[in-house]
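Two proteins were folded this term; both appear here.
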Amino acid sequence: MTPEQLLQRDAFFLGIELRLFWLVALLYGICFIIGIAHLISSRNSIGRALTKGLWITAITHTMLIIFRTWEGMRPPFQTLYETLSWFAWSATATYLYVQSRWRGIHAPGFIIAGIAMAACLYSLLTRSPEIAPVPPALQSPWYEVHVVAAFFAYAVFVVSFSIETCYLKFRAHFVEEDGEAKASLTHGRGDFSRPFGSMDEKFHRWTHRLVLFGFPFLTFAVFSGAAWANDAWGRYWSWDPKETWSLITWTVYAMYLHTKAVGKWKGMPASILNLIGFVCMIMTFLGVNWLVKLLNIPSMHTYAV
């Protein structure tokens, strides 16, 4: 096959991938709109439609991930274009697994759909889809292990954040509306129309369990990242902006996990720490890239900018 034919073939496959990626972004957008309708109407039938829509989107997104893997002949998370897609897919897949345990709860899917849609659009509109050679810094066996562990932890933390946010939203709404300690996550029509105190305990227990499950993967991601840095640059830790923010994220989630043991941190302080942890996670994943580029800060992770 001549070089021209190879270029034509690659362009053809890339065109198919981009059309599929735009379809995935559109499906996430539709789910996001359905989620808004669910929040406004509080109808459980619309909530079920949201969850079914996310299942359809996740299956389609899985096809995209497989196609990109075949197209590039390597794991699909070597560039920021790919990792944004991987982030959206892993968060959605993790949420759907957790949601299957709560069949009457659909509201957090609204946040998951919004985050996934934003990640896909950011990838499509700002990053190049070109399948480029892997940079030397990424040619380490530790890199793939590091990325898989980190993004699995991120996916679990996104789900914990979505549940925490919905809980705080509806808690504030009902306390303000009737001043009573009763509420349900789906505007009083879901499966959790129990005394507020029992719901408070249930949701905090679930968000805590999710972070507890994801935290060891985040810890392993930090250590494997250090091993990868030693392979790539000859030192385990250099206080690079990306490394520093990963340590900040790890510290915030470690503090959150200790809220069970510290009485004063239970309830609202624990929820705030969970939300702060999510913000720090986004800073580690994307925010540092923007700061490095905006402020011209030296960084060994410029390949991700």
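Next, the second protein.
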Amino acid sequence: MAPPAPARRELLLRHRFESLAQVREHLHVQDGRSLFYFRAASLVAAGGDRVLMEISTPEQQMLLRGSVVSRDMTGLWLEFPDGRLARRLVDGGLAQRRQRRVPMDLLVEIKACGSRVGRILDVSMGGARLGGVQGIATGEEVELRLLSALPEVPMSIGRAEVMRTTASEAAVRFVRSDPPTRVAATRLLDAAQRAWARSVEQPHAPGCCGKNGILFEPPMPRLGSSRGSVL
């Protein structure tokens, strides 16, 4: 089976809110998907570009993967799927994490009983989330090796234990008692943080969602057939 296509560049965006209520006001469901307006007049982007966005309140965080629908003179309309996102906002808000997850999109070779290719979707001090993988089991130990070189990061990330799996994803915990793994995992996280530090960040606009209920947004666009994904 052919390996996944090489990772494409993504826009890295952050939007900070003061409360979960403000987040709900700015996520608009249309045709089973969510639209979000990101105000950034100088941001260079086009329809179809991939987006990785962190939405946060003072206590909580959610990472979203989607795409640019359209842009105007003041910003971008972004598209995300609605199902899991809508349920999270209604049932309990954004994800509360013991360790901060840093988004990535890197090809990785996963060695256990055999070898397979997947992607590192995000990384933390303790572990990582892998996408596009099947055939590995909870409790299994795997070896991770990058297929894309990063400055100052060893190609061999080292040993990790599979903590849980879904149909196509796996959460792994680095074996940090192994010195080479501890060094490589730390450098991988540092590389992700350096990339994320160059993201475009916006706070919630003062006066928006106020007592008059007005949102500082242009009219919503019509959606095409593309879909994003929730992390």
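Residues 4-8, 225-231 have pLDDT under 50 and may be disordered. The longest strand covers residues 61-71. These notes refer to the second protein only.
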